[in-house]
Amino acid sequence: MARYIRPEPPFTLDGVDMTRHPARTVRVHRIGAALKILGTSALVGTTAALATTLIHTVVTKARTWHEMFSWWDPTLAFLALAPFALYVWRWDRIKVGWHFRGYHLGDEELYIRTGLLHRSFTVLAYARIQEVNVVSGPIQRRYNLATVTISSAAGHDTIADVDPQTAYDLRDRLTDLARKRRLPV
User: Fold this and answer.
1) Which residues contact 153 (CB under 8 A, 6 or more apart)?
2) Which CATH class is domain 101-181?
3) What Cα–Cα distance (Å) separates residue 104 from each residue in 93, 124, 139, 169, 179?
4) pTM passes above 0.90
5) Is the pLDDT of residue 139 over 70?
């Protein structure tokens, strides 16, 4: 599916190739999606099981454990398959979304493109950059990745999941460009 979907204007620059993120970022995002889905489904499943057991017990006036849990077989099968179906749906979207992510250091601006469904193309002038940080979470460290966070008066922008050396080079380059382009006060 990924080969049929490509970024289109206004999410591209004429004659400019956006720097792509490493392919292993797909694995990191799939692990992150699995953890989110697992946590959410455990919370929702536990809450639903407790609430429906309570309602079933009150409505049927069940007195034994066997009577209380007699309805659980089909419900638990659904609760077990729903997160799996959601993860299968997310699996390919993560790979396709990887094609839509990139960045480019222009002469006067930084260009950041993200998103598959909610596409975003950010143009950030170097003169407006206030702070540049490099962070790396436990899953990113496991796969040798880092995230560059850029702060400006307008908010925060990120270049997620790049090689650590590239992240440190970007931090140094963006800091130098911001220092050079900053207007005198």
Assistant:
1) 128, 130
2) mainly beta
3) 23, 11, 25, 14, 19
4) no
5) yes
